[in-house]
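4.2 Preliminary Data

To establish feasibility before requesting continued support, the project team ran the inverse folding procedure on a target of 345 residues. The structure was first converted into the token representation described in Section 3, and no sequence information of any kind was made available to the design step. The complete token record follows.
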């Protein structure tokens, strides 16, 4: 048995029950805090305590280049992947701002880019390959590379001390890989899953759809397993996120899934290891239309719908203050007994 098949523990049913009971005792009409009540109960189960708290958040942005990015499927050139790694190292990206605001443990994991590595204490330069292969003409990754990427995600999570994990991604062309994964996993075609990513025009969109259909046809006999899909259609950062998510479940660390690409990794991670599912939450609904199909397959209800289409873990980090509000309400509100207020009759 591979490490990633080992079962994740179940969240504590006893502590979920205790938190549910406390929610009925707080000075508010029953159910009036809606999803915030459910979040508190979920964290109670995850942390195995009736009064959970959230202060230690870890963010890992997994970056990689994609062979398919040379085919004109993005509004930006592939060099932007490495340029953005430098921006992450210098603190200038959206995810830097949001991570700093939450005092999150932030780092970038360079899984493999076309250009030379950016040296920085904030960047782990793994460079397992010079990007992935063009998935429309060859398998994106070798079987050995898939294993190495899954293990790299695992190793990142093994080094963490946190109460919540956020994976971000950076890789020009990775909405093409992610869309192909949705199609293969859900049994759909290019037209059903393809969006404009960084903002491509109609001609590039048509080309992106055609290349995805070409990839689905080329690899058809390899797409009946999550590992086959990851190898043929994935990317180095997508495979690493997949491994990181599975390790989070195994270590009882809840995961806040970011947008469209991170959800592609989550779809495959749950397929590989179904016991991961209770450890997952989704931050937001991306403006990539097919994201909704992935969220539905994962049976996840996103917290926010703000028209976000950035990635990097940014949507997840916008949602974390909401989680903290839910937990503060849960632990700090007075009960009916404490406040001497009459209960529901
Ligand atoms: C400056 C810049 C910063 C980004 N940060 C995240 N992405 C996002 O856009 C890319 C995917 O879109 P596509 O498939 O169309 O290339 C990924 O890198 C994703 O993280 C960015 C893209 C750009 C250009
Ligand atoms: O939803 C996302 O995660 C997304 C969408 C477009 C480009 N990059 C990321």
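Position-by-position output of the design step:
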């Amino acid at each position: 048995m591979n490490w990633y098949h080992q079962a994740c523990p179940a969240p504590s049913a006893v502590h979920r029950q205790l938190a549910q009971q406390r929610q009925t005792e707080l000075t508010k009409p029953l159910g009036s805090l809606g999803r915030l009540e459910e979040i508190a109960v979920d964290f109670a189960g995850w942390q195995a305590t009736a009064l959970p708290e959230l202060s230690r958040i870890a963010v890992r942005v997994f970056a990689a280049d994609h062979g398919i990015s040379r085919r004109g499927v993005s509004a930006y050139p592939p060099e932007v992947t490495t340029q953005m790694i430098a921006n992450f190292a210098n603190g200038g990206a959206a995810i830097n701002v949001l991570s700093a605001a939450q005092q999150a443990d932030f780092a970038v994991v360079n899984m493999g880019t076309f250009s030379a590595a950016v040296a920085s204490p904030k960047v782990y330069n793994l460079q397992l390959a010079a990007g992935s292969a063009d998935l429309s003409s060859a398998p994106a990754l070798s079987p050995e590379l898939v294993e190495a990427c899954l293990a790299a995600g695992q190793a990142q999570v093994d080094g963490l001390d946190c109460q919540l994990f956020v994976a971000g991604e950076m890789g020009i062309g990775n909405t093409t890989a992610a869309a192909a994964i949705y199609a293969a996993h859900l049994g759909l075609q290019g037209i059903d899953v393809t969006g404009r990513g960084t903002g491509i025009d109609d001609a590039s969109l048509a080309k992106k759809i055609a290349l995805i259909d070409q990839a689905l046809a080329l690899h058809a006999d390899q797409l009946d397993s999550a590992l086959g899909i990851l190898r043929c259609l994935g990317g180095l950062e997508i495979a690493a996120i997949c491994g990181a998510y599975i390790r989070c479940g195994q270590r009882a660390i809840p995961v806040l899934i970011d947008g469209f690409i991170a959800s592609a990794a989550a779809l495959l991670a749950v397929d590989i290891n179904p016991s991961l599912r209770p450890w997952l939450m989704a931050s937001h609904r991306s403006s990539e239309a097919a994201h909704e199909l992935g969220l539905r397959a994962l049976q996840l209800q996103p917290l926010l719908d703000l028209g976000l289409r950035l990635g990097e873990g940014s949507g997840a980090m916008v949602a974390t203050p909401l989680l903290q509000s839910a937990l503060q309400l849960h632990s700090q509100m007075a009960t009916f007994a404490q406040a001497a207020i009459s209960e529901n009759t």
